[in-house]
Design a protein that fits this description.
about 30% strand, single chain, 8 strands, globular, two-stranded antiparallel ribbon, six-stranded mixed β-sheet
């Protein structure tokens, strides 16, 4: 189990790269919208790396799309393919969503590189026109 090898974090990891703020997360994180909350537009892109099994793949794509819409951010989900040593099957479904939840690129069940072009000006224009982020509840995560 993952909890035997990893411990939970207590802060979001956000890095800046070429004018973009990028939030980094792992598969389990995507289930917790409060944890992923993009407070004050702190990030523009969310990258989620996962081992999401085929049996629950609809949850993977639904949750990633929801995180894109509610956080007004591009979302990239990278999921594995194959069968692990516990005989659990993974069918990929790596995907990129724009800040409105529109699919920009998908690998479906193929092992391949997908490419999407992000538009910072369009993102900022949308956030300004539809500033739902201003109404987000203030909260603090405590462990």
């Amino acid at each position: 189990m993952e909890r035997e090898a990893f411990s939970g974090g207590d802060t979001q990891t956000i890095v800046s790269y070429k004018g973009w703020n990028i939030s980094l997360s792992v598969c389990y994180d995507v289930r917790f919208p409060v944890w992923m909350r993009n407070k004050n537009n702190n990030y523009d892109i969310l990258i989620n790396v996962a081992n999401w099994p085929t049996a629950r793949i609809d949850g993977w794509t639904t949750l990633l799309k929801a995180r894109a819409i509610e956080n007004q951010a591009y979302v990239c989900g990278s999921n594995r393919i194959g069968v692990d040593n516990l005989c659990i099957e993974y069918n990929g479904q790596s995907v990129v969503y724009d800040f409105k939840g529109k699919t920009m690129a998908t690998a479906e069940s193929d092992e391949k590189i997908i490419v999407a072009e992000f538009d910072k000006e369009a993102l900022e224009k949308f956030r300004k026109k539809f500033p739902v982020w201003k109404d987000a509840d203030a909260f603090e995560i405590k462990r």
